[in-house]
Amino acid sequence: MNKLPIVALLNTIEVVEDEGRLEFLPPLLEMLNSMVSTYVSKRLPNTPTQEEMEIGMREGKIPAIKAHRARTGLGLKDSKEMLEGYFYQRGVAFKGYRVDGTPFPH
C-alpha cells in the first residue's frame, strides 16, 4: 500500500470538517483507522492487530496474549509486554482491568 490513499483520505477529512459535514466523519475516521492499522502491521509485524485489541477488550488479557503469540511466534513475556504497552499508549483497557493496568476488585 502506498501512502497516497491515506493522504487523500486525510485531505477529504479536512474538507469535510471545513464544510461542517460532520455526519460524514465517523465512517471516514473508521476507514482511516483501518488503513493506518494495515499500514503499520505490514511494517511492524509484531504490533498488535485490531483483532487482538478487540479480543483483549472483549475477552481479557490472556486470550489476547495467546492470539498475539500464535500470530507472531513471540514468547509469553514479549507478547505480554507488547500488548500491555500498546493498550496503555492508546488509553485502552483489557476486560477486567483499568486503563492503568490495575485489575478491578472482585
General description of the model:
This protein is mainly α. The chain folds into two domains: 1-43, no CATH class; 46-106, no CATH class. 65% of the residues lie in helices and 0% in strands. It contains five helices and no strands. The longest helix has 19 residues, at 25-43. The mean pLDDT is 86.
Any key phrases for this structure?
106 residues; globular; mainly alpha; 2 domains
Contiguous low-pLDDT stretches (5 residues minimum) are none
Average pLDDT metric = 86
> Given the structure, what is the number of helices?
5
Estimate percent helicity.
Answer: 55-70%
Q: Beta-strand percentage?
A: under 5%
The best one-word shape is globular
SSE topology string:
HHHHH
Distance between the termini: 46 Å
Main sheet record: none
Radius of gyration: 16 Å
SSE inventory with pairings:
Layout: H1 4-18, H2 25-43, H3 50-58, H4 61-72, H5 76-89
Helix pairs in contact: 1-2, 3-4, 4-5
Task: Briefly summarize what is shown.
This protein has five helices and no strands. With 106 residues, the chain is mostly helical.
